Amino acid sequence: MFGLFKKNTPSNEPQTQEEKSFFKKAFSKTFENIKSVVPQKQEKIDFDTIEELLIESDVEYEIVLKAMDGLDEKISRSALRHRLVSLFEHVPNFNLELQQPEVILIIGVNGAGKTTTIAKLANMYKKMGKSVVLGAGDTFRAAAIEQLSTWAEKLNIPIIKTKQGHDPSAVAFDTISSALAKNIDVCIIDTAGRLQTQTNLNNELKKISKVCTKALNDKPFRKLMILDGTQGNSAIAQAKAFNEMIDIDGIIVTKLDGTAKGGALFSIANRLELPIYYIGIGEKADDLMEFSPDYFVDNLLDQIYSA
Ligand SMILES: Nc1nc2c(ncn2[C@@H]2O[C@H](COP(=O)(O)OP(=O)(O)O)[C@@H](O)[C@H]2O)c(=O)[nH]1
Ligand SMILES: [Mg+2]
Fold first, then answer.
1. What is the value of pTM for the model shown?
2. Residue (of 98, 107, 101, 115) closest to 208 by Cα position
3. DSSP string, 160-179
4. Is 196 part of a structural domain of the chain?
5. What whole-number distance in Å separates Cα of residue 108 and Cα of residue 226?
6. Mutational test site, ligand 1, from 22, 242, 283, max ligand atoms within 8 Å of CB
7. Atom in ligand 1 nearest the alpha carbon of residue 279
8. What are the tens digits of pLDDT across the range 37-92?
9. What number is the average pLDDT over the span 246-275?
């Protein structure tokens, strides 16, 4: 089965038939779109055609130019594979050593899928036999606390929460303290959606991050950015600003099930120089998948290249 937050290695690839078809379903719109540019599979494909299909699947133009620089007029599968896979190559910037408790702070704009992704991660950890506690750190809206509480109940997982309007840093601190006191393996902390331009909210986020560090006695924890896949490339500027603010460790891209913009994964990973750990492919607790760049690229090339 999938491990959590491993380096992107071939072992991250879907193993069972079920996982494989799940992956194909997630990218079905993106792949259909690509096939409309190259209706017939070929051994070598024209430079201009490849350029067009990358742009069509929402790879940023700058990244398209970078990936294709110096390639021949007729491009072979292996040449293109090499270029596309290397767009994902960069070392994850967090310490892979497991901490106890493993703390994950979830960050992103409103509606990106933060709360839903927390439920999915909690579900995954639980299935691995780990104990989990959730922190309802989006104290901005009462509905957000309720939403996470509903998930906690459904998944039978404890949750730490306060009233709407209370200090989210206190919730983060209490969640971590509770995990330490009860020997819980994993803490996942929600935060309110915010834009990179909202100074007050951003100072609040820095404070939450500092409080986590303090509660953990300076041990590292993970800050994951949730990006809405249907936004394609427009999510990148946002994520860059957040990364400058509090050093993001990795990305989860949601809602890939509803978009043909799967190519944006290339630009997101390359421009942010951060690993994409998971992809969200639906609204249910099981709709989260580990992301393997190699497997993604191979499947994409299968659509257009003959064997
Ligand atoms: N189709 C689909 N919908 C998703 C996915 N992740 C989240 N959503 C939906 O997106 C909406 C916003 O999600 P939510 O978790 O509340 O976002 P938040 O504001 O960032 O916490 C909800 O209706 C979710 O069910 C996904 O991977 N696929
Ligand atoms: Mg939320």
1. 0.92
2. 107
3. E---TTS-HHHHHHHHHHHH
4. yes
5. 5
6. 283
7. 27
8. 998 999 999 999 999 999 988 899 999 999 999 999 999 999 999 999 999 887 56
9. 90
Whether 18 is in a domain gets the answer: no
Nearest ligand to the C-alpha atom of residue 194: 1
Q: Is residue 183 in a domain? A: yes
d(C-alpha 160, C-alpha 135), whole Å: 5
Nearest CA to ligand 1 atom 17: 113
Q: To which residue do tokens 């497997």 refer?
A: 295
> DSSP assignment, residue 196?
T
Q: Is residue 166 part of a domain?
A: yes
Identity (one letter) of the amino acid at 226? Answer: I
Ligand 1 atom with the shortest distance to the CA of 190: 21
Task: Provide the number of structural domains found in the chain.
Answer: 1
pLDDT digits (tens, 9 = 90+) for 240-249: 888 888 889 8
Choose the residue to mutate in 107, 188, 251, 254 for probing ligand 1, maximizing ligand atoms within 8 Å of C-beta.
254
End-to-end CA distance of the chain: 29
CATH code: domain of residue 161? 3.40.50.300
For residue 2, name the pLDDT band (cuts at 50, 70, 90).
Answer: very low
* Helices marked H in the chain: 17-26, 28-37, 47-56, 61-68, 77-86, 114-127, 142-155, 168-182, 199-215, 235-246, 264-272, 293-302
**DSSP of 21-89, one letter per residue?**
HHHHHHTHHHHHHHHHHS-S-BSEEEHHHHHHHHHHTT--HHHHHHHHTT--SEEEHHHHHHHHHHTT-
Q: Residue 126 is part of which domain span?
A: 110-221
The angle subtended at Cα 279 by Cα 90 and Cα 296, nearest 5°, is 65
Count of C-beta atoms within a 10 Å radius of residue 16: 9
What's the length of the chain?
Answer: 307
Q: Judge contact between 19 and 289, C-beta under 8 A.
A: yes
